[in-house]
Amino acid sequence: MARLSRDEIRSIVIDCVSEIAPEADFDALKPERPWREQLEIDSFDFQNLLAAIETRAGVTVPEMDYAKLALFDEMLDYLEARQAA
């Protein structure tokens, strides 16, 4: 799979989250607060989200790295960096 730009990764994440939480307002996210809390994404939805991201972006996130995805920008940074892994 070709390397995705940050904007492409962001778009994939937003699309995947929107399938789980269609009412999600990404413009209202406070960057210093955990995005899952703000969008009310529970553990089950989070697992589904990661599966969808893996399918669409080809990036796997091991469970030990979940804490690295707390803030929305951190998640984008992580996914961008993991493409090469």
In N-to-C order, the SSE pattern is: HHHH
> What would CATH call the homologous superfamily?
ACP-like
Low-confidence stretches: none
Extended strand count: 0
Residues in helices, as a percent range: 40-55%
Q: Give me the Rg, rounded.
A: 12 Å
Mean pLDDT over all positions: 93
Structural class: mainly alpha
The top-level CATH class is Mainly Alpha
Principal-axis shape: globular
Q: How is the CATH topology named? A: Non-ribosomal Peptide Synthetase Peptidyl Carrier Protein, Chain A
Q: What would you say the CATH architecture is? A: Orthogonal Bundle
End-to-end separation in angstroms reads 12 Å
| SS strand fraction | under 5%
The total tally of domains equals 1
Number of helix segments? 4
Major sheet summary line: none
Folded structure, characterized:
This protein is an all-alpha fold and 85 residues long. The protein has one domain: ACP-like (Non-ribosomal Peptide Synthetase Peptidyl Carrier Protein, Chain A), CATH 1.10.1200.10. Helices cover 54% and strands 0% of the residues. The protein has helices spanning 6-20, 35-39, 43-57, 72-82. Helix 1 (6-20) packs across helix 3 and helix 1 (6-20) crosses helix 4. The longest helix is centred in the N-terminal third of the chain and has 15 residues, at 6-20. It starts with 5 loop residues before the first helix and ends with a helix.
